[in-house]
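Lecture notes, part 5. Sequence design as translation. It can be helpful to think of inverse folding as translation between two languages: the language of shapes and the language of residues. The source text, in structure tokens, appears below.
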């Protein structure tokens, strides 16, 4: 068995717990009364690693965030095209690849649907161009057969849109992930 002996004359004794945690953004996270709250989260921040830590600028909260993604929900009551996610493309010219999924649920029937999509959008820093979009998965029960999703652009934004069914309340949930090069 080995033992470590610390010579007190050569410096302070290390603290029994860490006193701060360096993070990727808003560093550091500093425990309060030796307590550090660690949460999960997400951000649209572009980070090729797909994850970052946020120290909440010195508070005792540390958030581990999935990057390059956003989620959203909306409820439709008719067949009006409705934007569920607006993604600002920024002032730097770039090409974006988007992919994700959308789920739909009508509780009165009940009926469900699920969709998978991908697409490419380019921005010159002022306006967006939809290069192309593909909808690879479309799973719909008969009551939601006329529901649909679309990847579109408006101004300098990419839009994920849903289209409900006339006189039908539908709850939608979406995930959008992206990669970019500029």
């Amino acid at each position: 068995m080995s033992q470590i002996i610390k010579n007190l004359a050569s410096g302070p004794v290390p603290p029994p717990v860490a006193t701060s945690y360096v993070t990727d953004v808003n560093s550091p996270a500093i425990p309060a009364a030796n307590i550090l709250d660690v949460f999960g989260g997400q951000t649209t921040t572009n980070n090729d690693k797909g994850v970052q830590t946020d120290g909440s600028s010195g508070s005792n909260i540390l958030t581990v965030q999935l990057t390059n993604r956003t989620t959203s929900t909306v409820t439709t009551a008719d067949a009006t095209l409705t934007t569920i996610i607006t993604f600002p493309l920024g002032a730097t010219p770039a090409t974006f690849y988007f992919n994700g999924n959308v789920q739909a649920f009508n509780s009165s029937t009940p009926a469900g649907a699920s969709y998978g999509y991908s697409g490419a959008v380019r921005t010159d820093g002022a306006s967006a161009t939809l290069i192309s979009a593909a909808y690879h998965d479309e799973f719909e029960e008969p009551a939601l057969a006329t529901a649909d999703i679309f990847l579109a652009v408006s101004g300098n934004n990419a839009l994920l849109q849903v289209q409900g069914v006339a006189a039908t309340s539908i709850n939608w949930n979406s995930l959008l992930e992206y990669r970019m090069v500029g």
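The translated text above is only one of many valid answers, since several sequences can fold into similar shapes. The mean pLDDT is 93.
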